[in-house]
């Protein structure tokens, strides 16, 4: 009887252990289900989160402000360039009206007359089978037929080359290109004029207009150099006040704002009798360059 009761007791103890373990796990799961919700963030944590958000928004605002300032600078530069180009277009219209009367240069009395069909004495030039009396003994009939009219001209009568260029006509042609808005062609024409006729009467004006075409094409470095050259040799010329303003515009285009503002300020000091149009141009360009008043 003792042998039979031992396994029963062992099985009873094992069942009790299993039941106890089940109760333990059930109690643990129930405890987990009954855990309280997480505590809300403290005031310090909320303040930190708000501060971080504020700093993030401030950084975004700084970036947006910097981008806005860059766009404003670009817009102002574009507006300044548009204003400058519009002003130059209007000025060219005035130049066209003021110079229209001088577009046709006077004829050069020393220029060679146009070729005609007559010889030096006014008689028709020989041609075909006609032969000169001086050449009858030396030219055969075949030579005479192939020689034509040139066979009757002496060496002194033959043309020696094209007639020399007329400075007034060359200047008028260059000015016509400028008035027509062909700045690149006008630039080349004025350069050639100054090379061929550096001491001509129109050379100072040609230097001014060359610098003007360079400025119109945004070649600020060469424009400034030519305006300086013009002012050095034509300080009291009629176009000197305008050249002073244009020099400032070229310097502003090069980013030399301080020198440009000084050039604008010197207009009224050096040229108190400058025209109203030139003074207005200086004021407009000075404001565009943000010069101190």
Protein described:
With 293 residues, the chain is mostly helical. Helix content is 66%, strand content 0%. It is built from 10 helices and no strands. The chain has helices spanning 2-33, 43-99, 141-147, 167-179, 183-196, 203-216, 220-233, 240-253, 257-270, 276-288. Helix 7 runs antiparallel to helix 8, helix 8 (240-253) packs antiparallel against helix 9 and helix 8 (240-253) runs parallel beside helix 10 (276-288). The longest helix is centred in the first third of the chain and has 57 residues, at 43-99. The chain is elongated, with a radius of gyration of 48 Å. The model is unreliable at 102-139 and 146-153 (pLDDT under 50).
